[in-house]
Amino acid sequence: MKNNDSKYFEVNKETWNKKVSIHSKSEFYNVEGFKKGKTSLNSFELEEVGDVSGKSLLHLQCHFGQDTLSWSRLGAKCTGIDLSDEGIKVAKRLNSELGLNATFIESNLYDVPKKVKGKFDIVFTSYGVIGWLPDLKTWGEIIANKLKNGGVFYLIEFHPIVWMFNYLQTPPKLVYPYQNSDVIYEEYKGTYTNNNADIISREYGWNHGLGEVVTALTNAGMHIEFLHEYEKSPYNVFPEMEKTDDGLFKMKKDQQLFPLLYSIKAIKK
């Protein structure tokens, strides 16, 4: 991580703090349905992570904690971390309201070694997380350090090709390189849950190819059990996507040229 990355994190934290109040009231996150027992987890991660009952789980970049609490409901002993202090406040409130026993810690991902004690059976992270991180080498090392021997790391993420498009244009335009070492800055009105929300999102991000992700994990001493790519997504990430019978979304047939998601399961040796 470079010395000037801290200014990028400060801007991103400010934006995510503003997003929390909008997201926690949005139809997208459906907090009321969640409180009544609806899981926020999707079929991909539920099937691929498997039984978590009795296991310790560290959730990196947890936003305001719905997925963390969903794993907690399934019997895991969970710790969630996030850059946003507002997100952690909401997560703690939900945890208390639902009578669950998750722990939430405000932390930049790169501060996890200092702020999170112990080792875990599972480290989990999902959907829109990699792009906020400038340095995947350190990311991989932190994950490996936080796993017990034989522990599992699971990531499900939007495919790197998805991040090559500029969504501020209609239709989205292919703009960014597949691998991009330079920081990408975007500024736009609203948020992904509400394009008309009264917020200006200012964001710094980085693009990482699959090779970079896999290498970061293997160099840290983990064994890749699988790398899956999917043409469907639980989220409507492109304009004019089609909803499928299983409730997922895919590109129209003549536009289905690349995967929308990938998932990785890695085991600490």
Automatic annotation (TrEMBL):
UniProt-recorded Gene Ontology molecular function terms: methyltransferase activity
GO terms under biological process: methylation
Alphabetical list of InterPro entries matching this protein: Methyltransf_25, SAM-dependent_MTases_sf
UniProt keyword list: Methyltransferase, Transferase
Superkingdom classification of source: Bacteria
Transferase in keyword set: yes
Entry-linked SUPFAM superfamilies: S-adenosyl-L-methionine-dependent methyltransferases (SSF53335)
Any matching Pfam family: Methyltransf_25
Protein name per the record: Methyltransferase family protein
Taxonomy of the source species: Bacteria, Pseudomonadati, Bacteroidota, Flavobacteriia, Flavobacteriales
